[in-house]
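Adenosylhomocysteinase
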Amino acid sequence: MNHDIKDINLASGGKKRIEWASNDMPVLAQVKERFEKEKPLKGMKMSACLHVTAETANLARTLKAGGADIVLCASNPLSTQDDVAAALVKDYGIPVFAIKGEDNKTYYKHIISALDHKPTVTMDDGADLVSAIHKERKELIPQILGSMEETTTGVIRLRAMEKDGSLKIPVIAVNDADTKHLFDNRYGTGQSTIDGIIRATDSLLAGKVFVVAGYGWCGKGLAMRAKGMGANVVITEINPIKSLEAAMDGFMVMPMSEAVKIGDLFCTLTGNIHVIRKEHFEGMKNGAMVCNSGHFNVEIDIGALETISSKINKSVRNFVDQYVLKNGKSVYLLGEGRLINLAAAEGHPACVMDMSFATQALATEHVIKNKGKLEPKVYDVPKEIDQWVASLKLKSMGISIDTLTKEQEKYLASWEEGT
């Protein structure tokens, strides 16, 4: 089996990690059980570009159980858990092309290796796989039934491709499903980002001024968690409605140019480029720490930080680099500006990824069931999938909810009755 991982001998630790995560993924387990019986993905060759974590491993196992011939590569150079990659290859027979800390050349080589599988279905976290297909492997387009996109940044890219007529395959925006972004983005990102920051810095958040750039679902989750740990949270935004929402949620709201004067810790979660740049670094307090929890490392202008630095001290702690600026102040960059929750920690907890990945698996089945019916555009996840996943999650948590009476159903379906 062709693969490229760090060390196959790490497999035993990875298998334990995968099994531990599976204990907290009951919804995905039910999908896997049905897939094993029905084989809805039989005959499908799949290439998936995702964070190679224990949770992702359980998704890959589910897709394989459904009959898919699946290959996995990393969607970020620092997000791979090497022991998990080894276990997928050794214990579960799934080819993996991913090594934590791989350089950009290797990262893109691994993407091409995944595409050499000649997939009929793809799965993305950031749209790098789909982008590579459209730029370098156009001959694959006619055979691809569709793709699933897992993250906000990827959906932004894909909608841009659809808008200018560049998108040539159907894509399901899994990120936009309620069972994904309302939970994974908010609670998953909130907790795992805090986890990564604390593991990297060993900092006490209480009393610090914590600047969150972006108040989408990821930013909301992080702001909520930072506030809960006693930080004084500042929100920077470009959207007036989100800014107003942040203010009414009890956070300080101001431009980044003002926030840099008071911030102790900065985290970007916008999906945009150069949110923190040269003039911002120069205005920061001595000892300010900067990190990113958006998908790509472009949110922080690292090139500009390098140009205004007189000295760079690499790895003053694991995943912490010190930049001594020409003005004498120091700025600390965490996780090389890449996803801090995956670079320095373990990513989202399995409980929340249970819903995201169950939705991913069911969206894949939906694409295959609708072979030839989907146009080359971005689709939402069918609402019935969302409702089913949410209902199963509630059941797994021991939570019951009300149902409508016949009288209530009739009332909601009519317009005659008023006050």
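thats it. The first strand starts at residue 45 and ends at 50. The two ends are 69 Å apart (CA to CA). bye
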